[in-house]
Q: What sequence folds into this?
């Protein structure tokens, strides 16, 4: 992936060293102020005072997984990712941005699946900024970060909120796109991937689609998965009855299959061990009775025959 992001290569001095020099500079200003009223000393004192005011602006404290985008009079000069206490050119505009992972839970939205059925689907997303250049310069965040009086932390918070807004909109679009390519559920005979049975394959498709959409903003999707899936309320009752009917049919097929195998085993056992000789009519009657007993939903109530075999 093409990127203009690179590490800051400008002058970067230890903040503690510059802090010591600042104290020495302060002592120099005090010394020249009380030396006398000579014009040269006054001029030097004023210069040192101006430097004393400007130098502290260059101090930077960078925490782990935070970065500073360095801008020098409108020119991008790299991203400071090193952690610690530093001093840089005070005329650099430093935009603080966090590289830490963030969660986003998208509330369920109503979409149409591949079959045209309205469904409710939601997702949870873990994302982070991976390209600071694109994150700061490729998307418009000026409306939320334009306040010059705000602190660095407040500006970073506003910047991350603008990212969250952008991610939220793209999540909605990606979720609609992916959900429209799969059916909610298929018949038992179909082996097509569905939203209900797709599992990891659907989540992988969703993650790939989100990465394609968020690449413009330098945002990387760490994980994306569907966490809410249901039929829309207006068809939920009908689809529930359909699922119940399909389950009943499948169960009946298993019951009949088992009953037929049991009847076949019983007839084979009787014939092999020559327990009783049955003609075709008696076999048909026995098969009928056994199937009724085995396939009935209620408990069978036997009727005792006190007469002969034929009565």
A:
């Amino acid at each position: 992936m093409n990127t203009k992001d690179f590490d800051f290569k400008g002058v970067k001095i230890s903040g503690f060293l510059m802090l010591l020099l600042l104290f020495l500079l302060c002592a120099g200003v005090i010394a020249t102020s009380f030396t006398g009223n000579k014009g040269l000393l006054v001029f030097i004192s004023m210069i040192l005072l101006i430097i004393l005011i400007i130098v502290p602006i260059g101090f930077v404290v960078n925490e782990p997984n935070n970065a500073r985008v360095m801008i020098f009079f409108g020119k991008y000069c790299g991203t400071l990712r090193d952690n610690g206490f530093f001093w840089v050119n005070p005329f650099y505009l430093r935009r603080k941005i966090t590289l830490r992972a963030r969660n986003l839970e998208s509330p369920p939205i109503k979409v149409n699946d591949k079959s045209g059925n309205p469904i409710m689907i939601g997702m949870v997303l873990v994302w982070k900024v991976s390209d600071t250049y694109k994150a700061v310069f490729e998307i418009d965040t000026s409306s939320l970060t334009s306040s010059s009086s705000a602190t660095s932390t407040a500006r970073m918070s506003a910047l991350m909120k603008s990212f969250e807004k952008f991610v939220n909109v793209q999540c909605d679009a990606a979720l609609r796109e992916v959900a429209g390519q799969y059916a909610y559920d298929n018949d038992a005979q179909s082996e097509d991937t569905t939203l209900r049975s797709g599992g990891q394959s659907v989540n992988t498709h969703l993650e790939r689609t989100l990465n394609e959409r968020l690449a413009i903003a330098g945002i990387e999707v760490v994980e994306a998965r569907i966490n809410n899936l249901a039929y829309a309320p207006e068809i939920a009752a009908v689809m529930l009855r359909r699922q119940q009917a399909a389950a009943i049919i499948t169960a009946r097929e298993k019951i009949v299959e088992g009953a037929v195998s049991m009847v076949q085993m019983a007839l084979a056992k009787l014939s092999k061990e020559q327990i009783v000789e049955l003609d075709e009519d008696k076999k048909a009657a026995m098969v009928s009775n056994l199937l009724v007993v085995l396939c009935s939903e209620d408990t069978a109530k036997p009727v005792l025959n006190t007469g002969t075999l034929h009565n």
In short: The beta strands are 13-14, 59-62, 66-72, 75-80, 84-87, 92-98, 102-112, 118-129, 219-231. The two ends are 88 Å apart (CA to CA). The chain has a mean pLDDT of 81. Residues 134 and 216 are 7 Å apart (CA to CA).
